[in-house]
C-alpha cells in the first residue's frame, strides 16, 4: 500500500526497469517531486510529446 501523499514510480517495462521498487525508499512524497514528464524519447518510433 502506497502511503497517502506519496507516489511509487514504475517503469513501463516492469521486467526490465530499475524503478522506485528498487530504491531504498520507494515512496516519494508529493512535495519532493520536482518535475513532470513531457516527452517520449525511446523507442524512437514513439518520439514526441505526451498527451
UniProtKB/TrEMBL annotation:
Keyword Hydrolase: yes
Gene Ontology biological process terms, A to Z: signal peptide processing
PROSITE patterns: SPASE_I_3
Assigned keywords, A-Z: Hydrolase
Pfam families: Peptidase_S26
A single MF term (Gene Ontology): serine-type endopeptidase activity
Segments forming domain Peptidase S26: 2-41
Entry keyword Chloroplast: no
Any one cellular-component term (Gene Ontology): membrane
InterPro entries xrefs: LexA/Signal_pep-like_sf (IPR036286), Pept_S26A_signal_pept_1_CS (IPR019758), Peptidase_S26 (IPR019533)
CDD domains for this protein: S26_SPase_I
Name used for this protein in its record: Peptidase S26 domain-containing protein
Amino acid at each position: 500500500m502506497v502511503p497517502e501523499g506519496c507516489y511509487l514510480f514504475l517503469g513501463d517495462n516492469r521486467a526490465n526497469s530499475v524503478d522506485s521498487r528498487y530504491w531504498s525508499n520507494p515512496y516519494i512524497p508529493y512535495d519532493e517531486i520536482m518535475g513532470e514528464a513531457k516527452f517520449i524519447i525511446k523507442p524512437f518510433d514513439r518520439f514526441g510529446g505526451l498527451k
